[in-house]
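Module 6 notes. Inverse folding takes a fixed backbone as the condition and produces residue identities as the prediction. Think of it as a translation problem where the source language is geometry and the target language is the twenty amino acids. Below is one complete input and output pair. Work through it position by position during the lab.
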């Protein structure tokens, strides 16, 4: 490639992202305290670094692959955009570890809390029954990362986005301004009985008694864009509140229904009611709900089935291509979307 053309392409990339892509990613874990003591957040961070220390595998276990990063590396000193991640019901920061890695390589700081009550590491019924706290968890993480540049570097406050999978997709939709109505959700469950979503109502505190908690508002005006990855509970959001959302949204849906969770009734509902001019909906025909989670190791399906029959589905995808290929498509779409939605100067 001629040098002038290569230079022009690089300048274009820099003008969109506001940061040069990095070959090395730093990783650290921290906590965000809660004055009440009940909802202290464990937070994982990925960020660009020019540290030369050895990398280690981060986020791996017997089922899932991790990513290579330098633990507790020094941030590279640039002022960078921030992406906050929200995991699904019963998940953790590890679930979107793969996406955090790709974003950090592109020059983003990424932060992901484990949501108390609905994470692998904390299944407290009392905290699970405070669904309205999930968006506020992300706001608290934003406060913490902006307030302490030593964690992952300086943050550009006008360049913040939120991405969530499953219940995390619900979380980022609420963070963008979606208003959730327990009564609306209950009525919809009469029309579309769904044990995967409707069956969680009591556990997540979606009851008439908590209507006021949802009405207090869960949005954060610092959010400049959202990405939803096959969300659930979407039909409890009021259409008028979604229509009033003023930030760009990228909505991904899984084309293969895992049973009573069709994309058209969840991601489709969200996309239908968000402003058309700023919303992009993409359905991936060969993706399952869990295709947006991290890569599974060989033999993971059999291992999960032996431990918990039926759980092997989290490592299953469509037959046409690998989960890694699906990840590559999704990451490329998200990176392109964010470059336009929260561009650099």
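Target side of the pair, the amino acids:
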């Amino acid at each position: 490639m001629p040098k002038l053309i290569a230079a022009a392409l690089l300048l274009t990339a820099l003008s969109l992202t506001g940061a040069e892509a990095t070959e090395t990613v730093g990783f650290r874990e921290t906590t965000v305290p809660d004055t009440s003591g009940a909802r202290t957040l464990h937070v994982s961070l990925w960020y660009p670094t020019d540290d030369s220390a050895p990398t280690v595998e981060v986020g791996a276990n017997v089922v899932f692959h991790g990513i290579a990063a330098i633990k507790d590396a020094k941030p590279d000193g640039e002022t960078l955009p921030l992406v906050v991640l929200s995991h699904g019901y019963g998940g953790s920061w590890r679930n979107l570890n793969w996406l955090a890695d790709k974003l950090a390589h592109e020059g983003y700081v990424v932060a992901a809390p484990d949501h108390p009550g609905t994470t692998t590491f904390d299944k407290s019924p009392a905290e699970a029954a405070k669904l309205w706290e999930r968006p506020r968890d992300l706001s608290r993480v934003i406060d913490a990362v902006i307030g302490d540049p030593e964690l992952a570097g300086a943050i550009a406050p006008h360049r913040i986005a939120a991405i969530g999978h499953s219940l995390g997709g619900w979380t980022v939709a609420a963070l963008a301004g979606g208003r959730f109505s327990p009564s609306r959700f209950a009525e919809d469950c009469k029309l579309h009985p769904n044990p995967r979503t409707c069956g969680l109502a009591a556990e997540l505190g979606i009851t008439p008694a908590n209507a006021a908690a949802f009405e207090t508002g869960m949005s954060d005006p610092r959010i400049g864009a959202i990405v939803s990855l096959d969300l659930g509970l979407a039909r409890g959001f009021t259409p008028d509140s979604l229509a009033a959302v003023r930030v760009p949204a990228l909505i991904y849906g899984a084309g293969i229904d895992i049973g009573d969770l069709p994309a058209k009734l969840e991601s489709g509902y969200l996309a239908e009611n968000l402003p058309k001019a700023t919303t992009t909906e993409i359905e991936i025909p060969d993706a399952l709900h869990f295709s947006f989670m991290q890569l599974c190791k060989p033999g993971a399906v059999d291992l999960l089935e032996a431990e918990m029959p039926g759980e092997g589905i989290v490592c299953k995808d469509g037959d046409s291509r690998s989960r890694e290929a699906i990840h590559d498509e999704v990451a490329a779409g998200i990176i392109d979307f964010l470059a336009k939605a929260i561009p650099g100067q």
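Reference fact for the lab report: The longest helix spans residues 323-341.
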